[in-house]
Amino acid sequence: MGLFERYLTLWVALCIVVGTGLGHFMPGAFAALGGMEVANVNLPVAALIWLMIIPMLLKVDFGAMREVGRHWRGIGVTLFVNWAVKPFSMALLGWFFLRHVFADWLPADQIDSYMAGLILLAAAPCTAMVFVWSNLCRGDANFTLSQVALNDAIMVVAFAPLVALLLGLSSITVPWDTLALSVGLYILVPVAVAVFLRRWLLAHGGEARLDRVLARLGPVSLVALLATLVLLFGFQGRQIVEQPLIIAILAVPILIQVYFNSGLAYLLNRRLGVAHCVAGPSALIGASNFFELAVATAVALFGVHSGAALATVVGVLIEVPVMLSVVKIVNNTRPWYEREVRAQ
To answer: Of 45, 52, 56, 205, which has fewest CB within 10 angstroms of its CB?
Structure first.
């Protein structure tokens, strides 16, 4: 594991602090960056997200979907949690905490926007960081690849209708054209570029050349992640400093849904006798969020300075440290998990 991966929590924390500080003390500069938009899509954020996603997608062999049959129980559990539980549990948690428990502490005109951000965050399973989490818990690489490939294929057709359904239930009007544009920019185009580039590299140098390119692009992806954090927290710098209570409130449903969904996936896999090397990444994929897409869609739908964008950025704030804690739980409970599987 490289320097960036080994100290990822530290780099993320530094970027959060730097981005928040810069946004608070240099609001004009970040306002100018936030205004660089085409069709409601922020160009600096889009460029960084592409740099972040495409190197990760290059690792995905969509032919690995042939592994679905081999890992059908783990695949089934992850799909169930990702698409039938997580988005709806987040909508329920958001409704409970934002509209009831903490409603008096939130600006009434922003509650719908905060709800939208939480729903966007939970509506798509993570693509990029999953490879890091899987590696940290010694997960089966073939399972991770096949699961990510299958999730990406489903996301292309399911993300927009699912978000529209849940936002509609929350009485929020959804501009379908903008949502469709975000899906195209942040799923279809990166996947197409990655598939084409992967095939070209394999045809002109084989696995050795692909491995060399991936090794060179690995730092690019992580630097883009850190730069994206600086930019996003810079956009929200003043709100984070001036509204710490709102940040804490938004963190509550996100934290609950991460631990709930990862625990549900982990226990279901254990009950079904799935190997730990599959159950670990299944739990992590089941709980993690595609925050790049969530942030991009929130910015496109509601604007850089909206409550929805703030809610998705809180998801970024929580994602890495919380997922690292889930990795630790998965690793520490491996003997307990395997005793049950052996007994079946």
So the answer is: 205
Q: Phi/psi zone of residue 41: left (φ > 0), alpha (ψ -120 to 50 degrees), beta?
A: beta
Number of other CB atoms surrounding residue 202 within 10 Å = 14
Scan for tokens 């963190």, then name that residue.
251
Within 10 Å of residue 115's Cβ, how many Cβ atoms? Answer: 27
Question: Phi-psi category of 288—alpha, beta or left, where left has phi over 0 and alpha has psi -120 to 50?
Answer: beta
Helix (H) or strand (E) holding 42, with range, is strand 41-42
pTM of the prediction? 0.76
Whole-angstrom CA distances from 281 to 3, 54, 278, 302 are: 22, 21, 6, 33
Q: How many CB atoms lie within 10 A of CB 192?
A: 12
Contacting residues for 137 by C-beta, under 8 A, at least 6 apart: 280, 281, 284, 327, 330, 331
From first to last of the 344 residues of the chain, give the pLDDT tens digit: 556 666 666 777 788 888 888 887 888 888 788 778 765 566 787 788 788 778 877 877 766 656 667 778 999 999 999 999 999 999 999 999 999 999 999 888 889 889 999 999 998 887 667 777 787 788 887 788 778 778 877 887 788 888 888 887 655 555 566 666 766 777 778 878 888 999 999 988 888 888 888 888 877 877 887 887 788 778 767 767 777 888 899 999 999 999 999 999 999 999 998 999 999 999 999 888 877 678 777 877 787 778 888 888 888 777 777 888 899 899 999 999 988 777 66
